Automatic annotation (TrEMBL):
Keyword Membrane: yes
A Gene Ontology term for the protein's cellular component: plasma membrane
Protein topology in the membrane: Multi-pass membrane protein
Mechanosensitive ion channel MscS domain: residues covered: 630-697
Signal peptide: 1-30
Gene3D superfamilies in alphabetical order: 1.10.287.1260, 2.30.30.60, 3.30.70.100
The protein, known as: Mechanosensitive ion channel protein
Length: 841
């Protein structure tokens, strides 16, 4: 028994121990995930913390840029790259500040909802509310601090950008106005350096050519093939689109002004671009395939640039001056004058190109600066001499107009300008300012050619945009055949083509001019980016890209609304046999709703703050409260008229006592011009609330009537046939609906008819009615049909007084007959006078 008790106690203790261990392990297991989860849960940074970290990175980057500026103070290319990086940093800092704005607004709204902390004597608030207020206040203070740092950093970046701009401006000025002493010893040093440079460059070129031919033959041919393919693709596409404007037709003896301008502009632009594509792609592929060595690559690039420059000037000379085709010439020059000026321009381009090419060779070979100076001096002297020699020529077309005849001298002002510029180049170069002389000479040739080509392009666009001018071109005839366009549509296409030519001329010419005047590609990219994304107008920032996006979104939503209107009206409501009035109301309501939504989406996409419209709404409400109901009513009515368009400019309307042609519709009033050329200004609210008749609402078709009256002796059917016959001869009268004649009534003295016919344009009604009345009168006279005059019969009954007094007595018949005859005579006279008075009236 005792043994059993001991065993039972032992088992119970073991059970309790096991259970305790189990519960402890379970509790440990239950706590372990929590601990592990707590350990593994990352601490999430607030937006202000993330912004602070990004600002620290931006500060480090700003310091690096400042150090780079100090190290590259004399390197313009390096400064351009640093300026681009600084601009990117500035936009990044602004983005950091802008991204904090939503969180700041959330904190501000939440603090407004929580309210201020309770004051002394007020009931205490919950601890969780106090903690939340304190946390939000701390975060708001942190956001303010980060925003302040971002503003200071943005100011520092802007200051750095301004410093870079000032340094680049100073470098450009120093380069232009750097003076070099010109002496015999300088020329001797340049000659010796030139001999050494030729020897070194020939060795480098021969070694590079041998290396390429031995080890880089396949990449060389691959690069050439790809470059030629790119240029041929551009040329073939250009010939398909502008083939008629790339070559002159020798069979045309007297080409039009538009034809000459178009061929001059497009032949110069397209062919030069094709060569540029060939040269650029060639250099790109040669460099990408490692065919070019570091010392040879700049020389090849300069060679390609020289070829492109000379070709462009040659195309320009051929397009403008047409030395051997006087009937295609755009300026009034003789044949000899056109050839001489063309040769002078081409010679100056060759001199400039060779100067640039040899200068690049000197830089690649490490030649002394004196060689570059002397080479630029020689180029400036040659160009100055060419200008002075050209000023003594006789290039102007003879007064007889014969291009083969000897020409006339330059106008006196032009000759003086050429001599002054040529002499100025020579004097400037000999004075030691070789850089300035070289810059001026280069701009005279290249910038002059680019500006002249742009001007020809603008003239081409202007000529094509002129009314009824585009229809004579090859492209217009193609569009007419292909799309069956009418004259009006072709004229509108001509306007768009003219605008497109304007855009091409400006978008190609302006960047080229900027590049020639010292700008870099990075500068142009930065200008384009700011132009499309951030245009400052006072305190307002406008994004052209955002505005274009907003316009596209508005157009898309509007088109979607119009499609939804047609689909609901033609499928849903029409099949459900909904009343026509209900259908129109639903259709109009969807149209207004869609336009409103499209406007909101477009304005938001354009980056315009919709909250600014609250000021307009409040101003309108205050205006209404101060008695501007009529103005606001006219304003809203004007918006309704502009959107709903019950009438449009050019419509023939009748409103109350005003009848005429609508000339202008504004948001306050509508201008109606009467047929007596009187302008009547009608408030829009009267047009909305009153009755308005529109003769040309849907179209200009209208009915016109001519009343006709004939005597009772006329045959009615013959009269109707004559009227219809005369109407059928008028070409302006519509055949459907066909004209018809109504026999209206039996008048007191005539048979009354009315000729009714329809005209395609109600504006022709007066002329048609006038001509028809003349034809009807002449035809009725020829047919013997009388148009009666108004007349009335007057009968007078009269008794003799003597007969009444002597009733029963004998009266002499002769006297009674005489009285009756007199009365009859008076009645005839009275009837005749009545008819004469009616005729006069």
């Amino acid at each position: 028994m005792r043994l059993r008790t001991i065993l039972l106690r032992t088992i119970l203790l073991m059970t309790l121990a096991f259970a305790g261990a189990h519960f402890e392990s379970a509790a440990a297991l239950a706590q372990e995930p929590q601990t592990q989860a707590a350990a593994e849960t990352p601490i999430v940074d607030t937006p202000s913390d993330q912004a602070a970290k990004e600002l620290e990175k931006a500060k480090v980057q700003l310091g690096s840029l400042q150090d780079s500026v100090k190290q590259n103070a004399d390197n313009d290319d390096a400064l351009v790259g640093i300026a681009a990086k600084a601009d990117e940093l500035s936009r990044a800092v602004i983005t950091i500040s802008v991204n904090l704005r939503p969180r700041f607004d959330q904190i501000k709204n939440r603090l407004g909802e929580i309210g201020d902390a309770p004051k002394d004597g007020q009931p205490p608030e919950a601890e969780i509310v106090t903690q939340e207020r304190n946390a939000l206040a701390a975060e708001r203070a942190q956001i303010n601090a980060v925003t302040g740092d971002a503003e200071n950093l943005s100011i520092a970046v802007t200051k750095l950008v301004n410093e870079i701009i000032e340094m680049r401006r100073r470098l450009f000025a120093d380069t232009l106005f750097r003076r070099t002493e010109i002496s015999v010893s300088v020329l001797d040093d340049a000659a010796g350096a030139f001999v050494r440079e030729v020897s070194e460059f020939s060795q480098a070129l021969s070694s590079w050519a041998a290396f390429v031919w031995k080890f880089k033959r396949f990449p060389l041919f691959a690069a050439i093939f790809l470059s030629l393919a790119s240029a041929l693709i551009l040329l073939s596409g250009s010939y398909r689109l502008f083939g008629a404007y790339l070559c002159r037709d020798e069979a045309v003896e007297n080409p039009s002004y538009i034809g000459r301008l178009s061929i001059a502009f497009w032949s110069t632009l397209i062919r030069t671009l094709a060569l540029a594509v060939l040269l650029v792609t060639s250099f790109f592929f040669l460099n990408s395939f490692n065919v070019l060595r570091p010392d040879i690559a700049p020389v090849i690039g300069a060679l390609f640039g020289t070829i492109g420059l000379v070709y462009f000037v040659g195309r320009f000379v051929n397009a403008i001056f047409a030395p051997y085709e006087p009937h295609w010439r755009l300026v009034k020059l003789s044949n000899l004058g056109a050839r001489s000026i063309g040769y002078c321009l081409l010679a100056m381009a060759v001199v400039n190109g060779l100067d640039y090419l040899f200068g690049t060779v000197s830089e690649a070979m490490g030649s002394p600066l004196v060689l570059t100076v002397v080479r630029s001096l020689i180029a400036a002297l040659i160009i100055g001499v060419i200008l002075i020699a050209a000023s003594f020529g006789k290039p102007i077309l003879a007064r007889s107009g014969d291009p083969d005849a000897p020409g006339r001298h330059w106008p006196r002002g032009m000759a003086i300008i050429l001599r002054v510029v040529g002499a100025g180049l020579i004097v400037t170069a000999l004075s030691g300012y070789v850089g300035l002389a070289r810059f001026v000479a280069t701009q005279l040739i290249i910038t002059g050619a680019v500006v002249a080509t742009m001007y020809v392009g603008l003239l081409s666009g202007k000529a094509i945009s002129r009314q009824e001018s585009f229809g004579d071109t090859f492209f217009a005839r193609f569009l007419t055949r292909r799309f069956n366009l009418g004259p009006v549509a072709i004229d509108q296409v001509g306007l768009l083509v003219g605008l497109a030519i304007y855009a091409v001329a400006l978008l190609v010419g302006i960047p080229l001019i900027l590049l020639l005047w010292g700008f870099h590609v990075q500068d142009l990219q930065l200008i384009a980016y700011r132009l499309f994304t951030e245009v400052k107008l006072g305190g307002i920032s406008i994004s052209l890209l955002g505005i274009c996006t907003g316009i596209l979104l508005f157009a898309g939503v509007y088109l979607l609304t119009r499609w939804l209107q047609r689909w609901l009206d033609g499928n849903v409501m029409a099949r459900s046999h909904v009343d026509l009035g209900v259908r129109n109301s639903v259709k109009t309501g969807i149209g207004y709703l869609g336009v409103g939504i499209a406007a909101i989406i477009g304005v938001s996409a354009a980056g315009i703050d919709l909250s600014s419209f609250a000021l307009v709404a409040s101003a309108l409400s205050v205006g209404i409260g101060f008695g501007l109901q009529n103005i606001v009513s006219n304003f809203v009515s004007g918006l309704i008229l502009l959107v709903e368009r019950p009438f449009k400019v050019g419509d023939h309307v009748v409103s109350g006592t005003a009848e005429g042609i609508v000339k202008r519709i504004s948001v306050r009033a509508t201008e109606i011009e009467t047929f007596r050329k009187q302008s009547i200004i009608v408030p829009n609210s009267e047009l909305i609330n009153g009755l308005v008749g529109n003769w040309t609402h849907r179209n200009k078709i209208g009915r016109s009537e001519i009343p006709v009256s004939v005597s009772y002796d006329a045959d009615p059917q013959k009269v109707m046939d004559i009227l219809l016959e005369l109407t059928a001869k008028v070409p302006l009268v519509m055949r459907n609906p066909e004209p018809h004649v109504e026999f209206l009534r039996f008048g007191p003295y005539s048979l009354d008819f009315e000729l009714r016919f329809f005209l395609a344009d109600m504006g022709d009604s007066m002329t048609v009615r006038n001509n028809l009345r003349i034809e009807i009168l002449q035809r009725f006279k020829a047919e013997g049909i009388e148009i009666p005059l108004p007349q009335s019969d007057l009968t007078i009954h009269r008794e003799a007084p003597a007969a009444i007094a002597n009733e029963g007595r004998d009266v002499r018949p002769s006297s009674a007959d005489g009285a009756a005859g007199d009365d009859e005579h008076r009645v005839r006279q009275l009837r005749g006078r009545t008819a004469e008075a009616s005729l006069k009236s």
